[in-house]
Amino acid sequence: MTSAARLKLLVLPAALFVLAVYAWPTLGLFRNAFHETGPTGAMIEAWSLKTSQEVFSDGFTFELTLNSLWLSLSATLIALMLSYPVALFLFRTNSRFRGLLAVIAIMPMLISGVVRVFGWLAILGDRGLVNTLAQSLGLISTPLKLVFNWTGVTIGLAESIMPYMILALLAGFGQLDRTLEEASRSLGASPVRTFWRVTLPLSLPALALAAGLGFVLSMSAYITPKLLGGGRVFVLATEIFEQATTNTNWPVASVLAIYTLVLLLLLLVASNIAAKGLQR
């Protein structure tokens, strides 16, 4: 048996697992998208585009798309600005505690998303840490509304995607070369100028990769918008869940899920193209 044949045999179990767990349910999702919903709310088996036409002719779908894009963009930009210095420090440090610091940076990944959201509710609530501290310092007289709105969801979502973005940045910092920075400093450039003219341009591929990953994770997030939004923040993920569970309207939920999946794939492709272009 040749090495190529052995490799195919090794890959076969993983391929079958992916087909069984991901591909087959996705095909079922596509099939449900062609069904119709009867007057009583029951699903009618058919091969029709009626459900898709109703979904995309509804202005609420456009509103959900704009909400999702804006929320994802805001959370991604905030997380990127916070993750970049952390990842750059971890990449450059020679401390013997580097491994421990890296574990601390990505530790939120080890905690359930629901637990993290309830933690933010305790921090950002009317009687939470932020409002209590601000009132005790005399900065505000009444509590700030930081939860059950877009502000709280953006903060919680930015925190939830930060560990993934830090890992993506660390993986993409391979283009950084300390000798180029040292050469810039030796030629008289200030640290700020060296950062803007050398460090930042070399790290642009890593930034594009991390931004694409964070944006996709934000677009597909459900727990944070649902709990921190308190039913007042409507995005594609929450609407899909609502249609599938509360309304039991599987055709509409399937159409919205496929629509979201296509958007995510387009965003991933755009992110990869941008990262490769910046790398060249």
Please give the structural blueprint.
Elements: H1 3-33, E1 36-37, E2 43-44, H2 50-57, H3 59-92, H4 98-106, H5 113-124, H6 129-136, H7 150-172, H8 178-186, H9 191-202, H10 204-219, H11 223-229, H12 236-246, H13 250-279
Antiparallel strand pairs: 1-2
Helix pairs in contact: 1-13, 3-7, 3-10, 5-11, 7-10, 7-11, 8-9, 10-13, 12-13
End-to-end separation: 40 Å
Order of helices and strands, N to C? Answer: HEEHHHHHHHHHHHH
Strand content: under 5%
Radius of gyration: 23 Å
What's the helix count? Answer: 13
Number of β-strand runs: 2
As residue ranges, the low-confidence spans are none
Q: Shape from CA axes? A: globular
Overall pLDDT confidence: 88
**Content-based structural category:** mainly alpha
Sheet with most strands: strand arrangement: 1-2
For the largest beta-sheet, the strand count, sense and barrel status come to:
2 strands, antiparallel
**Helical percentage:** over 70%
In words, what does this structure look like?
Helix 3 (59-92) packs across helix 7 (150-172). This protein has 280 residues and is mostly helical. The protein has helices at residues 3-33, 50-57, 59-92, 98-106, 113-124, 129-136, 150-172, 178-186, 191-202, 204-219, 223-229, 236-246, 250-279; strands at 36-37, 43-44. It has a two-stranded antiparallel ribbon with strand order 1-2.
